[in-house]
Each structure stands twice: as C-alpha cells, then as structure tokens.
Amino acid sequence: MKSDTKSAFNAIASEYDSRDNQNPILQWMRKLVHGVYLKYIPEGSSILELNAGTGVDAVFLAERGYRVYATDISEEMTGIIQSKSKSEKAKIEAKTLSFDEISTIAENNFDAVVSNFGGLNCINEFEKLSGDLAAKLKPGGLFIAVVMNKICPWEILYYIVTLKFGEAFRRFNKQGILAELNGEKVLTYYFTPGEFAAAFSRNFTTVKLFSLGLKTPPPYLLGIYNRLKPLVKLWMKLDEIFMALPLFNRFGDHFIIVMRKK
Questions:
Q1: Would strands 137-148 and 254-261 be described as parallel, antiparallel, or unpaired?
Q2: Which one, of 128, 177, 125, lies nearest residue 152 by Cα?
Q3: Is the pLDDT of residue 107 over 90?
C-alpha cells in the first residue's frame, strides 16, 4: 500500500501548489496552522517536517529563520522542494523518506517535528514512528501534527442532507477508506484527538489541542464557500474564536495537536 500512496502523491505533485492556492478554505486553514507553529516553536529552531509535500510550509518556516529538514514519500514532491530552496535561498534540506525511514536521518537534535494536513492519516500504526520521532527530538522537543478528524460534523450533515447516507459516517471505518486527493485515491484512516494522542502517549504528552474547520465547510466543499461567501467567512471567524476551547477543539475537519517529548 505504501507504493500506491507514493504513486498517488507523485501523480499530483506538479499541480499541487496551483490547486492549493485556488482554494480559499485550504489557505485559511494553512494560515491558522502557521500561527500555531509560530506560537509554539521558538525562533531559530531546527524542524523536522514529515509529509512535507511541495514545501509550502517548509518555505514559510525557513523564510522566518527556522532550519527545516523536509521529508516526503514522493520524490516528485521533494524535487519541487529542492528547486524552491535553491531559488528562494531558504534554509531547507529535502529528502525522500517514508515514515518508516525517519530513523535513518543522522541528526538527533531537532527542536520540533511538524506534520500538516493529514499526512499521518495515511498510516494507522504509530508505535515505531512515535519512538523514531522521540529519538530525533531534543529533550522537551515539540511534535505538532495536523490530523483529519474522525468526527467532522460538517461532513456528516452534508452527506445526510444530500441523501448519501452511506458516506455520512465513512470516517468511522476502521479499515480506512479510499479518499480522493486531486483525482487520486489514497487509503486514509481517521482518528479522534484522543485516539491519536493515545497512539503517541508512550513518548509524548499533549500540550494543546485545536479544532480546524468545525463550523467552516471542509476544503472539498468549495461550492458552498462560493455560494455563501459572507456567511462562510463569518463561520471562519467563529472557528478562530472557538478553536482552542475545550469540547469545541475535539471536533472538525482536522485537529491540530501540540505534544511534547517526555
């Protein structure tokens, strides 16, 4: 299955940035994630990035003085990161590595590890990765993950209203589902914040939890944004207000979890 995932991400690499830039919901979500990065990761830190994609987050961080070691399973993706780092003179090193290969990285003193937009939803076994990430981090180092939530009220409501009842609770399938990503199918698993935190609890403690997209439609429901833009922008503002509040922070399209190495 790893090869299928790699092929899917290789196939979408060339159009990834353009699709990303054309989706205002996705751009808004990324802005909130960047805000969390800047709040919790001290200036000048060294960061290990998982599932770095085409390096959008790596470039953002590098331009603000962070040193980024960006990894991704797709050589097409990491090739784009390398071209960006050269043209923008950013402090980025990019290498093609799967989650299983993180232990092969020579450096063991990163200040933080980050993973954005559900890359970790491509696997459902975290014991090895948890140990590998802990080994790569300094004592007290941070792990910030953006994970697709099992409980997404917007998605449940949307599929019920459109009479697609079989899809309404698709995220609860323990065997995973074939989710569409820019026309490609990727086996995807979904987790509650509690499930995800428990999977890493041997090596990490949870510092903070944020909801990402509770009242705002998921990025794939862009048509709703286009038809109801003023209302959706109001929902975005409300999400920004409530994203860190207990209970509210446990639901949504994604969640942001900040953890610290024990």
A1: antiparallel
A2: 177
A3: yes
* Residue 188: its H or E element: strand 184-188
- Name the residue among 30, 22, 38, 40 with its Cα closest to residue 213: 30
Q: Which residues pair with 115 in a beta bridge?
A: 50, 145
Q: How far apart are CA 178 and CA 176, in angstroms?
A: 7
For residue 107, give its domain range: 2-261
Q: What is the domain count for the chain?
A: 1
Give strand ranges (E) for 73-183. 92-96, 110-115, 137-148, 177-181
92-96/67-72 β-pairing:
parallel
CA-CA distance, 100 to 79, in Å (whole number)? 20
Question: From start to end of 16-78, where are the E strands?
Answer: 46-50, 67-72
Q: What angle do CA 57, 59, 64 make, to 5 degrees?
A: 100
Q: What is each CA distance from 146 to 37, 82, 115, 181, 200, in whole angstroms?
A: 11, 23, 6, 17, 14
Dihedral in degrees, nearest 10, Cα atoms 157, 173, 5, 250: 60
For position 11, which CATH number holds?
3.40.50.150
C-beta of residue 70 within 8 angstroms of C-beta of residue 94: yes
**Out of 58-62, 87-91, 112-116, which region has the weakest mean confidence (pLDDT)?**
87-91
- Give the pLDDT band of residue 130 (cuts 50, 70, 90): very high
Q: Which amino acid, 177?
A: I
Which stretches of 162-214 are DSSP H helices?
Answer: 165-168, 193-199
